[in-house]
Design a protein that fits this description.
Spore Coat Polysaccharide Biosynthesis Protein SpsA, Chain A; alpha/beta; single chain; globular; two-stranded antiparallel sheet
Length: about 220
């Protein structure tokens, strides 16, 4: 790793950390985990691992869950050459913080990186970690101005169209993932329960929680 930063020893990811039962991207079989959807003939997971492996990362901990056995089967034979991949089943619907909390014992006591397995980037990890080290905060995240999926129409005060831009870049920064983290972050994590139901998937999650032992605030009727 360039500079004086000690090489981070684990990139945690593998299964998309915040998604477990979403429909895969176009063309994929519904039973394929999104991490194995192919881009250019290789699973998106391979591209993410390769981003780190090409910049001197060697050890990876994959937080698997829904259909995790398929991800493990791929990584056992298809991970980039020279990498060492470990697997931890962190549950089918565990959110990001809970997944990370469940692999805290594998992260160790040095700087480490975290990512989801559904988004590659043209990112200089050495520069990211040098910046992370320079400000001495426990966490650094990457932010981006993504291209909007819609055309943008500009109106004057009277509601008249005065301009139009086709799919411009957002003027706001959004989280792009790829954080650099210190072990102090692990002390702030909770592996507790939080539920929501803004879509059908939420009902599935809550029913699974109910069947799995009634978490706090979700009690069985008497």
């Amino acid at each position: 790793m360039p500079g004086t930063i000690a090489p981070p020893h684990a990139a945690t990811g593998g299964h998309p950390l915040r998604r477990s039962r979403d429909q895969p991207a176009g063309g994929a079989h519904p039973r394929d985990p999104k991490a194995l959807v192919e881009i250019g003939g290789r699973p998106i997971l391979w591209h993410v691992l390769e981003l780190y492996a090409s910049q001197d990362f060697e050890r990876f901990v994959l937080c698997t869950g829904y259909l995790g056995e398929q991800i493990e089967a791929f990584a056992a034979v298809g991970a980039p050459v020279g990498t060492r991949v470990e697997y931890v089943d962190t549950g089918p619907d565990t959110p990001t913080g809970g997944r990370l909390a469940r692999v805290a014992d594998r992260v160790g006591d040095g700087t480490f990186c975290l990512t989801s397995a559904d988004g590659p980037a043209d990112l200089h990890l050495g520069a990211l970690l040098r910046f992370h080290s320079s400000h001495r905060a426990p966490a650094t995240i990457t932010v981006v101005c993504p291209e909007l999926p819609f055309g943008v129409t500009e109106l004057d005060g009277g509601g008249r169209v005065v301009g139009s831009r086709e799919k411009p870049r957002s003027e706001q920064w959004v989280k792009g993932g790829f954080p650099g983290l210190e072990p102090a972050v692990l002390e702030r994590l909770s592996d507790g329960f939080w539920g929501w139901m803004d879509a059908y998937k939420g009902a599935v999650v809550l029913n699974d929680a109910w069947a799995g032992g009634s978490p706090p605030r979700l009690r069985r009727a008497r």
